[in-house]
Amino acid sequence: MLQITSRIQIDESELREQFIRSPGPGGQNVNKVETAVQLWFDVAGSPSLPEDVRQRLLRLGGRRVDTAGVLMIEAHRFRTRERNRADARERLAELIRQAAHRPKPRIATRPTKASQERRLDAKRRTATNKRLRARRPGED
């Protein structure tokens, strides 16, 4: 059981892992030992996630989520299989924690009179500068 928050827990049966050879430098060991891990989590079909968290997680996952709604995290930062496995699980948990945080709704406000005046003054100054830089007819 992977504990995410006090109300969200992911069962081990919902996670699928595959170990692959790690890319990059590493000497002779890198060519014979499969230390990198690919962790798959079916976001769209998970019974552990509330609907609002599921929608935000699909958006947050970006390119890591395929068309079927499966999130794939690849971890190859460390040289051992166990540390890469723990890293992938922690990254999944952190992503779900971010999705569980409900964003504060934006309250529409109007600009103040002073900020409108500052903006218009800045526009007038810019227009004046450009007008002064312009070539006059007959100047060459």
Can you lay out the helices and strands and say which pair or pack?
Layout: E1 2-3, E2 9-10, E3 15-20, E4 36-42, H1 51-61, E5 70-75, H2 81-100, H3 113-133
Antiparallel strand pairs: 1-2, 3-4, 4-5
Structure description:
The protein has three helices and five strands; from the N terminus they run E-E-E-E-H-E-H-H. Helix 1 (51-61) crosses helix 2 (81-100). The chain is of the alpha+beta class. The chain is 37% helix and 16% strand. It has a three-stranded antiparallel sheet, with helices on one face. Strands 1-2 form a two-stranded antiparallel sheet. The longest helix has 21 residues, at 113-133. A hairpin with a 5-residue loop joins strand 1 (2-3) and strand 2 (9-10). The chain has a single domain, classed as Double Stranded RNA Binding Domain (2-Layer Sandwich), CATH 3.30.160. The chain has helices spanning 51-61, 81-100, 113-133; strands spanning 2-3, 9-10, 15-20, 36-42, 70-75. Residues 115-124 have a biased composition (Basic and acidic residues). Residues 96-140 are annotated as: Disordered. GO terms for molecular function: peptidyl-tRNA hydrolase activity; ribosome binding; translation release factor activity. This is Ribosome-associated protein. Residues 21-37 form the Prokaryotic-type class I peptide chain release factors domain.
